[in-house]
């Protein structure tokens, strides 16, 4: 689908400022220039201007005629850390897989900068700087850590040693244990391997699907610290998390997804303090 920007939306401001959306919210949330109340889709279109990656009104699913995503919007600006939370089965993994070309998009568009990347194959997306760490089966258990990293850099093998050094700067354990098979590592260490492997292609945007799932609270904390560190190196991160409260503490901005649609969006702090979000999605079980 060819996407054109609506002509009557307010000036988006500096697209390079990851916090620029904060000021836009005030302008756009109430009304657009037309004087009519802005719909959530219009607010998204306005705020997503200049984003590094954006998904506009996605309809996507696993079988023809059955959409799991029912008009989902999402964007991430350069350097942003964006979280996606929501109940089981809401379509969070489906959204990341659709962006990464693993689930067919029936309607809507995904853009990377200004390029339409809708339904491009995963290997084409990796070449363009999109990295993805799936929720499950995200390491090669029979391969060593080093071999897993080689798989991560398979599109550009000559760059292996320089990039592995950078990954080891972030995750020293991966260097110390480079000859150990990934299958013999702890759950937390495996997540580091999975993230390290995705970083081997030096992505500009990294999609992470529940990196803290199945880990002890201490290891979950470590994963969140690492994710922030990755983000601080300049990588834009979109993270899906089951640990919703913790996720909202670390992200710049978040989305609550429910039944394949955006239910709520705002800064991590706004969402964590929104009584409806707390009641519906951060119930007592999620209180950490
Ligand atoms: N490979 C698949 N084939 C068919 N349907 C699928 C497939 N994967 C997921 N679904 C369906 O799509 C819907 C959304 O699943 P998805 O995995 O995106 O949810 P989620 O929000 O990531 O949930 P969770 O928090 O449990 O990971 C569910 O109804 C699920 O049954
Ligand atoms: Mg999931």
Can you describe this structure?
By secondary structure, the protein is of the alpha/beta class. The protein has a domain at about 80-105 and about 115-280: P-loop containing nucleotide triphosphate hydrolases (Rossmann fold, 3-Layer(aba) Sandwich). It is built from 12 helices and 10 strands. It has helices at about 20-30, 40-45, 90-100, 120-125, 145-150, 160-170, 170-175, 185-200, 215-230, 245-250, 270-275, 275-280; strands spanning about 55-60, 70-75, 80-85, 105-110, 115, 130-135, 205-210, 235-240, 255-260, 260-265. The strands form 2 sheets. Strands 6-7-8-3-9-10 form a 6-stranded mixed sheet, with helices on both faces. Strands 2-1-4-5 form a 4-stranded antiparallel sheet, with helices on both faces. The longest helix has 16 residues, at about 215-230. The chain is globular, with a radius of gyration of 19 Å. The protein binds adenosine-5'-triphosphate (ATP) and magnesium ion. Magnesium ion binds near residues 93, 135 and 210.
Secondary structure elements and pairings:
Blueprint: H1 21-30, H2 40-47, E1 53-61, E2 69-76, E3 81-85, H3 92-99, E4 104-112, E5 115-116, H4 122-127, E6 130-133, H5 145-152, H6 160-170, H7 172-176, H8 187-199, E7 205-209, H9 217-232, E8 236-240, H10 244-250, E9 253-258, E10 261-267, H11 268-273, H12 275-281
Parallel strand pairs: 3-8, 3-9, 6-7, 7-8
Antiparallel strand pairs: 1-2, 1-4, 4-5, 9-10
């Amino acid at each position: 689908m060819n996407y054109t920007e609506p002509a009557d939306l307010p000036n988006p401001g500096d697209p390079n400022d990851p916090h620029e959306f904060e000021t836009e919210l005030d302008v756009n949330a109430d009304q657009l220039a037309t004087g009519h109340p802005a719909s959530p889709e219009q607010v998204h279109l306005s705020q997503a201007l200049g984003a590094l990656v954006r998904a506009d009104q996605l309809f996507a699913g696993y079988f023809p005629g059955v959409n799991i995503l029912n008009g989902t919007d999402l964007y991430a600006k350069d350097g942003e850390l964006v979280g996606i939370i929501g109940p089981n089965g809401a379509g969070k993994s489906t959204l990341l897989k659709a962006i990464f070309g693993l689930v067919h998009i029936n309607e809507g568009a995904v853009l990377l900068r200004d390029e339409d990347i809708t339904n491009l194959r995963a290997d084409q997306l990796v070449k363009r700087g999109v990295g993805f760490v799936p929720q499950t089966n995200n390491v090669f258990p029979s391969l060593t850590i080093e071999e897993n990293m080689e798989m991560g850099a398979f599109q550009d093998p000559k760059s292996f040693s320089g990039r592995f050094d950078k990954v080891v700067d972030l995750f020293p354990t991966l260097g110390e244990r480079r000859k150990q098979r990934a299958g013999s590592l702890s759950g937390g260490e495996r997540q580091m391997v999975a993230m390290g492997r995705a970083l081997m292609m030096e992505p500009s945007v990294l999609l992470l699907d529940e990196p803290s799932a199945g880990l002890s609270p201490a290891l979950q904390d470590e994963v969140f610290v690492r994710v922030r560190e990755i983000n601080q190196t300049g990588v834009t991160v979109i993270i899906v998390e089951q640990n919703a409260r913790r996720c909202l503490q670390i992200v710049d901005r978040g989305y609550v997804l429910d039944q394949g649609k955006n239910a709520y969006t705002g800064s991590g702090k706004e969402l964590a303090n929104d009584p409806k979000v707390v009641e519906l999605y951060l119930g007592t079980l999620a209180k950490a």
